[in-house]
Amino acid sequence: MIEIYSNHICQFVEACSHHILCKRRLYPEAIFVSRLAFGNPVKKSIHPGVNQFIEESLDGLLTALDARGESNNVEGIDLLIQDYDGDMVEKYAFRLA
Q1: Residues 79, 91: contact at Cβ < 8 Å?
Q2: pTM of the full structure
Q3: Could you tell me if 64 and 5 are in contact, meaning their C-beta atoms sit under 8 angstroms apart?
Q4: φ, ψ dihedrals at 89, nearest 5°
């Protein structure tokens, strides 16, 4: 049950991440295509580098969620958008608690 929950949470955060990156125009619109996620239209990157970055970021979340039944307690995940100086410009918080 935890594995199914973990996969759905990661799929949701992944879909949101792609869509946010597109709608905030952080990458050229040409690298995004329209897809359905959870029955809703979203934008998804087709750029290998962007996709790899998102996948690697979510690997840690999946590992942590799968360990919830043991000792780990995941309260949420934040998607941060930073400027060129590394200062946070926007924050998208996904709370699971």
Answers
A1: yes
A2: 0.86
A3: no
A4: -105, -40
Give, for all 97 residues of the chain, the pLDDT tens digit: 556 688 999 999 999 999 999 999 999 999 999 999 999 999 999 999 999 999 999 998 888 888 766 556 788 899 999 999 999 999 999 998 7
Strand partners, 41: 36
Contacts of residue 44, Cβ cutoff 8 Å, sequence gap at least 6? 15, 18, 19, 32, 33, 34, 35, 37
Q: Rg (Cα) of the chain, in Å, rounded? A: 14
What are the structure tokens assigned to 72, written together?
């780990």
For residue 69, give both structure tokens. Answer: 């039944």
d(CA 12, CA 71): 24
